[in-house]
Design brief:
2 domains; Malonyl-Coenzyme A Acyl Carrier Protein, domain 2; globular; single chain; two-stranded antiparallel ribbon; alpha+beta; Alpha-Beta Plaits
């Protein structure tokens, strides 16, 4: 069964999210999510609104099944996921968010074609070692490579131009990295290679309706919370060309004493990153009907 299909068939609130996305985008996004084809669904300008739509559909299904939405002291989302966090916190209407994300994906794809790049995950080194490897690779190749995703202790993704990324990965191997994993991505995200996309997104966000959220949003760019609408918009633009400081974001939650976490939407990557940051914390990944029922059962206790 396709992405989000069982949710839409089980919960009217989830179905309404897919209907709203279809109307806002002027395309049958639900059909793409449910039936593919994979090569079209994987396009950046389709994948980004699809993931946002499924994630918000999960949230609405949780609210319908549990009688209320999850109570949150704060929210965060990795890269694209920050838009889900904003919708969840009431800072942005879903229809506007899905339109912005569609354009964001399109502009990022165009930037990838204009400035080709790639990404590589480095496992088993200190951040400072990877940062130094990137600097050395830039000096040796004359090309760009930078840290792009500080995911958790011992896991940092580098991003940039092909030759420099390869050189950085080789240097990290020589430094003792356990693994270097080339990522199947369209380009060098969260670097200056994405500057054309950031400029276009800045113009779009200047006219967006961002409200004060119901609770703080922990920014990818700073790893710190914000509730100021103007700052939220500014940071969403910076996010395109800045590294994602997810490890810092999780440390902020942990320092606040948060014990229980929900990962909403496709995949379980964030639960794994949290476990590597602090194995004592619990996280429920919610992406299908069974997960929603588990959440609802918790709410009834």
């Amino acid at each position: 069964m396709g992405m989000g299909q069982n949710l839409a068939e089980t919960y009217s609130a989830a179905r309404e999210v897919f209907d709203a996305a279809n109307e806002a985008l002027g395309l049958a996004l639900d059909r793409l999510c449910f039936d593919g084809p994979p090569e079209e669904l994987s396009r950046t300008d389709i994948a980004q609104p699809a993931i946002l739509t499924v994630s918000v559909a999960v949230l609405r299904a949780m609210a319908q099944a549990g009688g209320r939405a999850p109570e949150a002291r704060a929210s965060a989302g990795l890269s694209l996921g920050e838009y889900t966090a904003l919708v969840a916190a009431g800072a942005m209407e879903f229809r506007e968010a899905v339109q912005l994300v569609r354009h964001r994906g399109l502009w990022m794809q165009e930037a990838c074609e204009e400035n080709p790049g790639t990404m590589c995950s480095i496992i088993g080194l200190e951040d400072a070692q990877v940062e130094q490897a990137c600097q050395t690779a830039r000096e040796r190749t004359g090309s760009g490579v930078w840290p792009a995703n500080y995911n958790c202790p011992g896991q940092l993704v580098v991003s940039g131009q092909e030759a420099a990324v390869q050189a950085a990965a080789q240097l990290c191997t020589e430094l003792g990295a356990r693994r270097t994993i080339r990522l199947d991505v369209a380009g060098g995200f969260h670097t200056q290679l994405m500057k054309p996309a950031a400029e276009r997104l800045a113009a779009a966000l200047a006219g967006a309706h961002i409200r004060r959220p119901d609770h703080p949003i922990v920014s990818n760019v700073t790893g710190q919370p914000t509730e100021d609408p103007k700052e939220i918009g500014r940071l969403l633009v910076q996010q395109i060309t800045s590294p994602v400081r997810w490890a810092d974001s999780m440390r902020w939650f942990i320092d606040q004493g948060v014990e229980h976490y929900y990962e909403v939407g496709p995949g379980r990557v964030l639960r794994g990153l949290l476990k590597r940051t602090d194995a004592s914390k619990t996280c429920l990944s919610v992406s299908n009907v069974q997960h929603v029922l588990t959440y609802a059962e918790r709410e009834r206790r």
